[in-house]
Design goal:
Strand order of the largest sheet: 3-2-1-4-5-7-6
Largest sheet: 7 strands, mixed
Number of strands: 7
Mean pLDDT: 94
Length: 249
């Protein structure tokens, strides 16, 4: 069985064909994912892509998924993982209403939710307001944020706190527009967001069927959880803020 992990980052498995814009391992092939995928029609059994689609412009997302459809065998499965816009929007409304009533706990969660909702789309430097927030020690709503982001924030907090550095507050504005432009094109920022309706519609329009929303532990891919792509060794979810969807060709 040939399994393809697109935009794998640092989460890859040697039993998969792993592609990303940059390689950090002998098991990861450097490849520009804006180009047609380097595989024959109907040659792949499984395509997996986690927290990649939101980094593409909205207009490119259908083209990327069409390429995934092209290379999948009949009956092949695609699993797409993206940040869940619906949960973020619900959190925003819920915490906003409670904060208006004077609930201080909700106000702190509201402040974080604004960062989680917008920062990765509008930031002009690596890490953005999200990293600035994580540098606080103690960090407001730490337990809530870890529950939202899982391993990503736990690893970041560990690294920040072990370094024992005194991080200065970044300047609010910069006139280094060339650097900002390079950063905005680097691939870190989110260029679109999805919920189960919009992602399901996109998959359907490309030609996929049997589209369903699942949890991190649920899958139609044989032995998928053993590869520890969406879950950790202890069974916790790697990116709890995610929307998990699968479909078949």
């Amino acid at each position: 069985m040939k399994m393809l992990n697109l935009g794998c980052g640092s989460r890859w498995h040697k039993d998969w064909v792993n592609l990303d814009f940059n390689s950090n391992s002998e098991f990861v092939q450097k490849y520009n994912l804006y180009k047609p995928l380097p595989f024959d029609d109907s040659s792949i059994d499984i395509v997996y892509s986690s927290h990649v689609l939101e980094h593409f412009p909205k207009c490119f997302a259908p083209k990327f998924l069409q390429e995934c459809y092209r290379i999948l065998k009949k009956g092949g499965i695609i699993r797409v993982v993206v940040p869940d816009l619906e949960i973020l929007a619900k959190n925003y409304i819920s915490f906003l209403e409670l904060a208006r009533d004077g609930n201080l706990d909700a106000e702190e969660k509201y402040n974080w939710t604004l960062i989680e909702l917008f920062d990765q789309m509008v930031r002009n430097y690596s890490g953005g307001e999200m990293l600035e927030y994580w540098k606080q020690n103690p960090m407001p709503q730490e337990e809530f944020i870890i529950k939202r982001l899982g391993s990503e924030v736990k690893n970041a907090l560990k690294s920040i706190r072990q370094s024992h550095q005194n991080y200065p507050k970044r300047e609010c504005l910069s006139d280094d527009f060339e650097s900002i432009g390079r950063f905005r094109l680097s691939g870190e920022v989110h260029q679109w967001m999805y919920d189960s309706f919009s992602l399901g519609k996109l998959l359907r329009e490309v030609g996929f069927n049997h589209i369903e929303q699942l949890t991190a532990h649920e899958t139609n891919i044989e032995n998928f959880n053993s590869y520890l792509l969406d879950i950790e060794v202890d069974g916790s979810v790697r990116k709890p803020d995610s929307l998990f969807m699968e479909a078949k060709k």
